[in-house]
From TrEMBL:
GO terms for biological process: pyruvate decarboxylation to acetyl-CoA. Keywords: Oxidoreductase, Thiamine pyrophosphate, Transit peptide. SUPFAM superfamilies: Thiamin diphosphate-binding fold (THDP-binding). This is Dehydrogenase E1 component domain-containing protein. Residues 165-326 form the Dehydrogenase E1 component domain.
Amino acid sequence: METLFQLVVFVFQGARVVVSRSFADFTPQATFDIKKCDLHRLEEGPPVKAELTREQGLQYYRTMQTVRRMELKADQLYKQKIIRGFCHLYDGQEACAAGIEAAINPSDHLITAYRAHGYTYTRGVSVKEILAELTGRRGGVAKGKGGSMHMYAPHFYGGNGIVGAQGQLFESYNMAALWKLPCIFICENNKYGMGTSVERAAASTDYYKRGDFIPGLRVDGMDVLCVREAAQFAADHCRAGKGPIIMELQTYRYHGHSMSDPGVSYRTREEIQEVRSKSDPISMLKERMLSHNMASVEEFKEIDIEIRKQVEDATQFATSDPEPPLEELCNHIFSNNPLLEVRGTNPWSKLKSVS
């Protein structure tokens, strides 16, 4: 529950002036125009206006900004060689995870690909557990044994490698349509497949039409409200028994494909900067709220400071927590089996597995 007053502090020539401002001064709710979705096999699509309450706006901002700061910290830890191995960062695409999560229920099931940190957070895993997993520590969400691509939570089945999975994708489309499964297939189209632009890789970049007989939407994936409304439309479609639907979210990643990719050999720095300046999902939401008097600059600054501290505290834990001991290497292969022996790298190496 919010307190009644916010303190705004101004400093004029050494004099400290404290001004109290009531939260009642802010606009509690506003309606915004959002981009119309492109449709495939649908007579009508999501609305072109979205309502936003002050509380929702602040929550979406906090979620996206937390993911952004967490990913920037992961970048730093990787460059310090504290995080090793594969690491795919999500900064730039935050509106996708935040918008989808705002439209579905915690009990709905979700699985993502290898760029999994954002969804791991929106599914309820703390920044501390995510960063500790990236650094391979015992307190990580997968006890330090999963790393960047293998994090899990209730109703969230983690990241997974999708290399060579195109055939499986179309088989899944077919079965979902045959059985009218309540399934939303989401393509986060960040414009590049590793280092290849979509225009160079695909004769048709209309990914929302790839299901052929399955309805599809192409959505502005940089606008959290647009994603939320489209995801709500898709969820309602599925819950009404109409079968599967495809969503293509047009988004953009600021980092390279992974930390081993500088991200500027196949695109220019100017291109990245243009997206940052014109379409950044966090800045877009912040500007909307400020322009409609739904929050103050000082309030956003306070949230930013709080998030930075949260990420720094999580970093401290992720770099000081012990690594899992060798005897725990093979634990949790099964959920409820008695103690069993697992063969190591040679026939004489025996390890124990405890469920």
